[in-house]
């Protein structure tokens, strides 16, 4: 008997079924079966082509979702059932994550709840609001009465994995074409539920214009749904109150959304009003503010007054929006005036402004320079530019300004030194006696600056004239090697001085000791003796979001318990839902996408796996193994453009497939003689100026005005001693 039966059901709407079945076939699980309840000939033909090992249940056109689910469930032999609509998706690794979670659940749990992402016809991978509710519930199984807020979860049957015995016991009630009803009823009927706060389902919303119009009966059915569900909450006070709140909110939202003919809207409002009065919990108190007014009018059945309230509200919102717009315009004029006045003040020789990665916080080369500045020139006061949301993450005592604030423009106008690893805004004026230091944040493999003009995917949205104007403000440009110096001169042509001093952020690779490495590994939970492999892919200009190009769970399985995968997504995707759905309870896969600084992750790792990320150039300073996973090199090279052929000058073994990568890491190929020779050539070329004293050279040259001849010379590479390996540090 398999642990899990995945029941794919429905017609092949807009060919989404093909994509879903291909993803299931690409990541098969021995302890899971796939059953396709295919509605219509197209779905049947697709299923027969794309699920050679699965069972196909052909169903006639027009078969409803409920009947299709029931037909698939009748063929299932798994202990758990996961219903997946044919239009929806399963993120990479989701099946394995779900299978592992249900395998550990005790027998009294009836329903496992999952997180999900939402996609539409024009967006993909948007996070749901369910994650915080699931995380708050924790991993312990609970009764719904003890955790009634779970009723506020998005009512998707695909985010409920049902115990097969539970399904059979309640099949008659759960077999309905009203999916939200079935999703909520499953919760209300379950003895105990458990949560999995990882994204394991993709809810794909089809374009409304491509669907049949909503009928009046479907509108009224919303009220009937909740009335029927509330019947299941008799004598369950907490569940009744939570579900009542969900009902009223959903009815008001549906009414406010509009689109109903006037007579249908009036009838819907009347039915919702009766339900709100009839089902109101004893002692229920309406929320304060406008929401309370809405609910009061609903309970009174005051349709005309509610419509008038909507008109007044819309008018108020329009007026407020106009006021906000005028305030923004006035504020911009005021800030511009304040900035212009500040530019008339003398430059402060003891003030330095720092920023990194579009104001994310204290990081990268600017952070290393600021730290050395505090040591060598404490008379210079640093102020960091940080976004409001990231300000809370700053080290205690960090002086900072928020972009757009009055002090922000004042310090930009009067600071002697402006340090950034990207660029300051176009509006920043270059004063003759101010110094702009561009530190950059990587060694270029991909085309940069004006070299992107020939690559539309990379150049999308770039204003090259504005870029050149920003470049002309640079006084100094930091470089880690001769290759980088030459490429910056080509990509960013201007009169700045190149500082061939090394990247300050890489100093730590020569100054860190065994204790530092042990501390990082302890923080990450990596036990002594375990191999840690850092997987850090870059972003692709031709992809809207990030989906790992590896089946990380399968890779972790193949490498065994002695290997930990540290997985770091590119910072460009920091605001999106994490696709790392296959994190393992064993601790063999750790999502370190939010861990800063990245240099500590490099120190903790025995080896690096990357594709085309500039992290390879920094990591090479440690003289530890690097493996390149280049499954789409030709596409990347063609769409982004590159400065050299990585396939001919790689820092270690190259894998073009996951199978090849697994073979390299599972044998000695990742650190054999060939890998060592390739890395030595790569280090000599790209770690040319990095020796542990780059920050000192930059501070002495830029902030203390010392002559280049008086700076600490760059140590030859054969005389450098990198930080100890994790094996040495934990011996």
From TrEMBL:
The protein's Enzyme Commission number: 2.7.8.12
SUPFAM superfamilies: Nucleotide-diphospho-sugar transferases, UDP-Glycosyltransferase/glycogen phosphorylase
Domain of life: Bacteria
Top EC class, one word: transferase
GO cellular component, one term: plasma membrane
Segments for region (Disordered): 47-70
Localization of this protein: Cell membrane
GO biological process: teichoic acid biosynthetic process
Keywords: Cell membrane, Membrane, Teichoic acid biosynthesis, Transferase
Gene Ontology MF annotations: CDP-glycerol glycerophosphotransferase activity
Recorded topology in the membrane: Peripheral membrane protein
InterPro entries linked to this entry: Glycerophosphate_synth, Nucleotide-diphossugar_trans, TagF_C, TagF_N, Teichoic_Acid_Biosynth
Protein family (similarity comment): Belongs to the CDP-glycerol glycerophosphotransferase family.
Protein name (database record): CDP-glycerol glycerophosphotransferase
Natural source organism: Streptomyces caelestis
């Amino acid at each position: 008997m398999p642990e899990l039966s995945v029941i794919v059901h429905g017609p092949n709407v807009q060919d989404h079924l093909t994509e879903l079945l291909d993803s299931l076939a690409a990541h098969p699980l021995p302890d899971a079966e796939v059953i396709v309840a295919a509605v219509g000939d197209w779905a049947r033909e697709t299923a027969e082509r794309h699920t050679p090992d699965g069972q196909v249940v052909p169903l006639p056109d027009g078969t409803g979702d409920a009947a299709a689910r029931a037909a698939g469930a009748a063929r299932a032999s798994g202990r758990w059932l996961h219903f997946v609509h044919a239009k929806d998706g399963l993120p990479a690794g989701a099946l394995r994550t779900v299978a592992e979670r249900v395998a550990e659940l005790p027998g009294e749990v009836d329903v496992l709840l999952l997180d999900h992402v939402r996609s539409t016809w024009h967006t993909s991978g948007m996070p749901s609001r369910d994650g915080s509710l699931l995380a708050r519930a924790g991993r312990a199984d609970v009764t719904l009465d003890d955790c009634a807020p779970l009723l506020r979860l998005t009512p998707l049957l695909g985010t409920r994995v049902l115990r097969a015995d539970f399904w059979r016991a309640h099949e008659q009630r759960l077999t309905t074409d009203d999916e939200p009803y079935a999703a909520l009823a499953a919760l209300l009927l379950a003895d105990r539920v458990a949560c999995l706060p990882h994204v394991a389902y993709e809810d794909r919303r089809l374009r409304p214009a491509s669907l049949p119009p909503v009928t009046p009966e479907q509108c009224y059915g919303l009220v009937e749904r909740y009335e029927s569900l509330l019947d299941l909450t008799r004598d369950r006070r907490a569940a009744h109150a939570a579900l009542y709140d969900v009902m009223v909110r959903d009815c008001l939202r549906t009414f406010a959304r509009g689109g109903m003919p006037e007579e249908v809207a009036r009838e819907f409002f009347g039915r919702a009003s009766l339900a709100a009065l009839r089902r109101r919990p004893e002692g229920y108190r309406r929320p304060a503010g406008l929401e309370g007014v809405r609910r009061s009018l609903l309970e009174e059945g005051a349709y005309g007054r509610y419509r008038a309230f909507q008109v007044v509200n819309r008018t108020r919102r329009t007026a407020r929006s106009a006021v906000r717009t005028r305030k923004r315009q006035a504020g911009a004029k005021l800030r511009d005036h304040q900035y212009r006045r500040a530019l008339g003040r003398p430059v402060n020789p003891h003030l330095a402004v720092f920023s990194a990665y579009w104001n994310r916080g204290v990081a990268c080369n600017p952070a290393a320079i600021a730290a050395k500045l505090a040591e060598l020139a404490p008379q210079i006061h640093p102020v960091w530019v940080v976004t409001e949301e990231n300000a809370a993450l700053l080290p205690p005592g960090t002086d900072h300004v928020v972009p757009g604030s009055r002090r922000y423009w004042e310090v930009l106008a009067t600071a002697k030194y402006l340090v950034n690893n990207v660029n300051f805004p176009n509006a920043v004026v270059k004063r003759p006696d101010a110094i702009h230091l561009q530190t950059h944040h990587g060694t270029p493999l991909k085309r940069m600056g004006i070299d992107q003009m020939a690559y539309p995917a990379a150049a999308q949205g770039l204003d090259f004239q504005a870029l050149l104007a920003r470049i002309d403000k640079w006084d100094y440009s930091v470089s880690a090697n001769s290759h980088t110096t030459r490429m910056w001169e080509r990509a960013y042509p201007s009169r700045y001085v190149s500082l061939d001093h090394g990247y300050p952020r890489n100093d730590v690779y020569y100054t860190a000791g065994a204790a530092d490495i042990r501390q990082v590994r302890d923080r990450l939970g990596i036990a002594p003796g375990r191999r840690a492999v850092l997987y850090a892919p870059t972003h692709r200009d031709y992809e809207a979001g990030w989906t790992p190009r590896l089946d990380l769970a399968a890779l972790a399985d193949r490498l065994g318990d002695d290997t930990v995968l540290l997985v770091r997504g590119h910072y460009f995707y920091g605001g999106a839902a994490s696709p790392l759905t296959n994190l393992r309870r064993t601790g063999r896969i750790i999502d370190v996408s939010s861990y800063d600084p990245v240099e500590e992750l490099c120190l903790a790792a025995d080896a690096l796996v990357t594709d085309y990320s500039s992290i390879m150039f920094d990591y090479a300073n440690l003289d530890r193994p690097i493996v390149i996973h280049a499954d789409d090199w030709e596409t990347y090279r063609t769409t982004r453009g590159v400065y050299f052929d990585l396939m001919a000058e790689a820092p270690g073994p190259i894998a073009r497939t996951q199978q090849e990568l697994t073979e390299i890491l599972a044998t000695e190929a990742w650190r054999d003689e060939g890998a060592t020779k390739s890395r030595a050539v790569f280090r000599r070329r790209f770690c040319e100026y990095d020796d542990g004293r780059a920050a000192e050279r930059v501070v002495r040259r830029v902030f203390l005005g010392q002559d280049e001849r008086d700076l600490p010379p760059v140590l030859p590479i054969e005389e450098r001693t990198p930080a100890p390996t994790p094996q040495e540090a934990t011996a």
